[in-house]
Design a protein that fits this description.
Blueprint (H helix, E strand, L loop, with lengths): L26 H8 L2 E3 L2 E3 L17 H27 L7 E6 L2 E10 L2 H6 L11 E11 L2 E2 L8 E7 L9 E8 L10 E2 L4 E8 L2 H4 L7 E3 L10
Parallel strand pairs: 4-5
Antiparallel strand pairs: 1-2, 3-4, 3-11, 5-10, 6-9, 7-8, 7-10, 8-11
Length: 229
Protein backbone atom coordinates (compact mmCIF):
# COMPACT_ATOMS: atom_id res chain seq x y z
CA UNK A 1 0.00 0.00 0.00
CA UNK A 2 1.49 3.30 -1.05
CA UNK A 3 2.02 6.02 1.52
CA UNK A 4 -0.04 9.06 0.55
CA UNK A 5 1.06 12.36 1.99
CA UNK A 6 -1.42 15.21 1.91
CA UNK A 7 0.02 18.69 2.10
CA UNK A 8 -2.49 21.25 3.37
CA UNK A 9 -1.52 24.85 2.43
CA UNK A 10 -1.70 27.44 5.22
CA UNK A 11 -4.90 29.43 5.45
CA UNK A 12 -4.66 32.92 4.01
CA UNK A 13 -6.05 35.59 6.28
CA UNK A 14 -7.87 38.66 5.06
CA UNK A 15 -6.25 40.62 7.84
CA UNK A 16 -2.80 42.04 7.82
CA UNK A 17 -0.29 39.94 9.70
CA UNK A 18 1.67 41.27 12.66
CA UNK A 19 4.37 43.56 11.36
CA UNK A 20 6.78 42.40 14.07
CA UNK A 21 6.32 38.57 14.40
CA UNK A 22 7.62 36.85 17.48
CA UNK A 23 10.27 34.13 17.37
CA UNK A 24 9.04 30.64 16.44
CA UNK A 25 7.69 28.66 19.37
CA UNK A 26 10.13 26.09 20.69
CA UNK A 27 9.23 23.63 23.44
CA UNK A 28 12.86 23.60 24.59
CA UNK A 29 13.04 27.36 24.78
CA UNK A 30 9.66 27.47 26.50
CA UNK A 31 10.72 24.97 29.14
CA UNK A 32 13.97 26.79 29.67
CA UNK A 33 12.17 30.09 30.16
CA UNK A 34 9.62 28.67 32.57
CA UNK A 35 11.70 26.23 34.71
CA UNK A 36 14.82 27.23 36.67
CA UNK A 37 18.00 25.32 35.93
CA UNK A 38 19.66 23.47 38.90
CA UNK A 39 23.43 23.78 39.35
CA UNK A 40 25.25 22.48 42.47
CA UNK A 41 22.05 22.22 44.43
CA UNK A 42 21.14 25.87 43.89
CA UNK A 43 18.42 27.06 41.62
CA UNK A 44 19.64 29.31 38.85
CA UNK A 45 17.13 32.05 38.05
CA UNK A 46 15.76 31.97 34.54
CA UNK A 47 17.46 34.10 31.97
CA UNK A 48 15.85 37.48 31.41
CA UNK A 49 13.53 37.58 28.43
CA UNK A 50 14.74 39.75 25.55
CA UNK A 51 13.04 43.14 25.39
CA UNK A 52 10.00 43.19 23.18
CA UNK A 53 10.30 44.99 19.89
CA UNK A 54 8.11 48.00 19.51
CA UNK A 55 7.44 49.80 16.26
CA UNK A 56 9.37 53.00 15.83
CA UNK A 57 7.43 56.21 15.78
CA UNK A 58 6.74 57.75 12.39
CA UNK A 59 8.97 60.56 11.30
CA UNK A 60 5.82 62.69 11.16
CA UNK A 61 3.81 63.24 14.29
CA UNK A 62 0.11 62.43 14.19
CA UNK A 63 -0.80 66.12 14.20
CA UNK A 64 1.71 66.86 11.46
CA UNK A 65 0.38 64.05 9.30
CA UNK A 66 -3.18 65.24 9.82
CA UNK A 67 -2.23 68.81 8.85
CA UNK A 68 -0.53 67.59 5.69
CA UNK A 69 -3.58 65.51 4.74
CA UNK A 70 -5.93 68.47 5.27
CA UNK A 71 -3.69 70.72 3.16
CA UNK A 72 -3.74 68.21 0.29
CA UNK A 73 -7.53 67.86 0.50
CA UNK A 74 -8.02 71.65 0.47
CA UNK A 75 -5.70 72.07 -2.52
CA UNK A 76 -7.50 69.34 -4.46
CA UNK A 77 -10.89 70.86 -3.63
CA UNK A 78 -9.77 74.33 -4.77
CA UNK A 79 -8.52 72.94 -8.08
CA UNK A 80 -11.79 71.07 -8.61
CA UNK A 81 -13.90 74.16 -7.86
CA UNK A 82 -11.85 76.26 -10.28
CA UNK A 83 -12.24 73.63 -12.97
CA UNK A 84 -15.98 73.38 -12.37
CA UNK A 85 -16.39 77.16 -12.49
CA UNK A 86 -14.61 77.28 -15.82
CA UNK A 87 -16.89 74.56 -17.19
CA UNK A 88 -20.00 76.30 -15.83
CA UNK A 89 -18.95 79.59 -17.44
CA UNK A 90 -18.29 78.70 -21.10
CA UNK A 91 -17.90 82.42 -21.97
CA UNK A 92 -14.70 82.69 -19.88
CA UNK A 93 -11.88 83.89 -22.16
CA UNK A 94 -14.21 83.36 -25.16
CA UNK A 95 -14.95 85.48 -28.25
CA UNK A 96 -15.95 89.08 -27.65
CA UNK A 97 -18.69 91.07 -29.38
CA UNK A 98 -18.32 94.85 -29.26
CA UNK A 99 -21.42 97.02 -29.54
CA UNK A 100 -20.93 100.71 -30.43
CA UNK A 101 -23.60 103.15 -29.30
CA UNK A 102 -23.88 106.92 -28.82
CA UNK A 103 -22.91 106.43 -25.16
CA UNK A 104 -19.76 104.43 -25.90
CA UNK A 105 -18.54 100.91 -26.49
CA UNK A 106 -19.79 97.78 -24.73
CA UNK A 107 -17.88 94.51 -24.83
CA UNK A 108 -19.72 91.20 -24.37
CA UNK A 109 -17.98 87.86 -23.87
CA UNK A 110 -20.02 85.31 -25.79
CA UNK A 111 -20.56 81.61 -26.16
CA UNK A 112 -21.14 80.66 -29.79
CA UNK A 113 -24.12 78.63 -31.01
CA UNK A 114 -23.35 77.43 -34.53
CA UNK A 115 -24.50 73.82 -34.99
CA UNK A 116 -28.14 72.84 -35.22
CA UNK A 117 -28.01 71.26 -31.75
CA UNK A 118 -26.41 74.34 -30.18
CA UNK A 119 -28.92 76.68 -31.75
CA UNK A 120 -31.86 74.48 -30.71
CA UNK A 121 -30.64 74.25 -27.10
CA UNK A 122 -29.54 77.87 -26.73
CA UNK A 123 -29.76 79.00 -23.10
CA UNK A 124 -32.40 76.46 -22.13
CA UNK A 125 -32.19 75.27 -18.51
CA UNK A 126 -29.54 77.86 -17.64
CA UNK A 127 -30.18 79.26 -14.17
CA UNK A 128 -27.63 82.08 -14.40
CA UNK A 129 -25.60 84.11 -16.86
CA UNK A 130 -22.59 86.23 -15.87
CA UNK A 131 -22.97 89.98 -16.23
CA UNK A 132 -21.42 91.15 -19.47
CA UNK A 133 -21.77 87.70 -21.04
CA UNK A 134 -24.15 86.22 -23.56
CA UNK A 135 -24.74 83.74 -26.36
CA UNK A 136 -24.29 84.59 -30.04
CA UNK A 137 -26.31 82.56 -32.56
CA UNK A 138 -24.61 82.41 -35.96
CA UNK A 139 -26.58 81.84 -39.16
CA UNK A 140 -25.45 81.74 -42.79
CA UNK A 141 -27.59 84.60 -44.15
CA UNK A 142 -29.99 87.38 -43.31
CA UNK A 143 -33.51 86.10 -42.78
CA UNK A 144 -36.50 86.92 -40.60
CA UNK A 145 -35.78 85.24 -37.25
CA UNK A 146 -38.10 84.20 -34.47
CA UNK A 147 -37.16 83.02 -30.99
CA UNK A 148 -39.09 81.89 -27.92
CA UNK A 149 -38.38 81.26 -24.22
CA UNK A 150 -39.38 77.61 -23.89
CA UNK A 151 -37.50 75.84 -21.05
CA UNK A 152 -35.53 79.03 -20.37
CA UNK A 153 -35.68 80.19 -16.72
CA UNK A 154 -33.69 83.40 -17.34
CA UNK A 155 -35.34 86.66 -18.47
CA UNK A 156 -33.35 87.85 -21.48
CA UNK A 157 -32.82 90.63 -23.98
CA UNK A 158 -32.80 89.12 -27.48
CA UNK A 159 -30.84 91.34 -29.86
CA UNK A 160 -31.32 90.69 -33.59
CA UNK A 161 -28.36 91.73 -35.74
CA UNK A 162 -28.20 92.18 -39.51
CA UNK A 163 -25.03 91.43 -41.44
CA UNK A 164 -24.52 95.02 -42.65
CA UNK A 165 -24.66 98.52 -41.25
CA UNK A 166 -26.95 101.14 -42.70
CA UNK A 167 -23.98 103.03 -44.13
CA UNK A 168 -22.24 99.87 -45.39
CA UNK A 169 -19.21 99.99 -43.13
CA UNK A 170 -16.84 97.11 -43.72
CA UNK A 171 -16.40 94.55 -40.94
CA UNK A 172 -19.39 95.77 -38.96
CA UNK A 173 -22.99 94.66 -38.53
CA UNK A 174 -25.92 96.50 -37.00
CA UNK A 175 -28.78 95.85 -34.59
CA UNK A 176 -32.13 95.61 -36.38
CA UNK A 177 -34.38 95.09 -33.32
CA UNK A 178 -34.42 94.10 -29.65
CA UNK A 179 -36.94 91.86 -27.84
CA UNK A 180 -36.34 93.24 -24.34
CA UNK A 181 -37.08 91.69 -20.94
CA UNK A 182 -38.54 88.45 -22.20
CA UNK A 183 -40.76 86.23 -20.02
CA UNK A 184 -39.14 83.00 -18.76
CA UNK A 185 -40.66 79.76 -20.09
CA UNK A 186 -42.97 81.65 -22.45
CA UNK A 187 -43.73 79.95 -25.74
CA UNK A 188 -44.79 83.18 -27.40
CA UNK A 189 -42.95 83.83 -30.67
CA UNK A 190 -40.55 86.80 -30.58
CA UNK A 191 -39.77 87.76 -34.19
CA UNK A 192 -37.13 90.13 -35.50
CA UNK A 193 -38.36 93.39 -37.04
CA UNK A 194 -36.05 92.95 -40.05
CA UNK A 195 -33.92 90.17 -41.55
CA UNK A 196 -31.10 89.15 -39.22
CA UNK A 197 -28.06 86.93 -39.55
CA UNK A 198 -26.98 86.95 -35.91
CA UNK A 199 -28.89 86.85 -32.64
CA UNK A 200 -27.34 87.90 -29.34
CA UNK A 201 -28.93 86.89 -26.02
CA UNK A 202 -27.93 88.71 -22.83
CA UNK A 203 -29.44 89.25 -19.38
CA UNK A 204 -32.70 91.21 -19.31
CA UNK A 205 -32.13 94.95 -18.97
CA UNK A 206 -28.62 94.83 -20.44
CA UNK A 207 -29.61 96.53 -23.71
CA UNK A 208 -31.39 99.39 -21.96
CA UNK A 209 -28.53 99.99 -19.51
CA UNK A 210 -26.01 100.27 -22.34
CA UNK A 211 -28.19 102.12 -24.85
CA UNK A 212 -28.31 99.22 -27.33
CA UNK A 213 -31.10 99.47 -29.88
CA UNK A 214 -31.85 99.50 -33.62
CA UNK A 215 -28.97 101.08 -35.51
CA UNK A 216 -26.29 100.24 -32.93
CA UNK A 217 -23.15 99.10 -34.71
CA UNK A 218 -21.67 95.70 -33.87
CA UNK A 219 -18.12 94.42 -34.29
CA UNK A 220 -18.05 90.65 -34.44
CA UNK A 221 -15.10 88.33 -33.67
CA UNK A 222 -13.84 85.80 -36.22
CA UNK A 223 -16.62 83.25 -36.53
CA UNK A 224 -16.74 79.61 -37.68
CA UNK A 225 -18.62 78.60 -40.79
CA UNK A 226 -22.36 78.78 -40.18
CA UNK A 227 -24.26 75.49 -40.48
CA UNK A 228 -27.84 76.82 -40.50
CA UNK A 229 -29.18 79.19 -43.23
Amino acid sequence: MRDLTVIIPPLQSRYRRNRYPTAPHSPRNSATAQEPRVAGGFATPPAAAPPSRRPRHSEFSSSGGFTLTVALVVATFATTVTSCNERNDPTAAGPVVEVLTNSGSTRISVELAVSGEEITRGLMWRSSLPDGAGMLFVFAEDRPRSFWMKNTPLPLDIIFIGSHTADGRQGEASVVSVAADTTPYSQQSLPSQAPARYVLEVNAGFAARHGIGPGSRVKLPPLPQAQIP
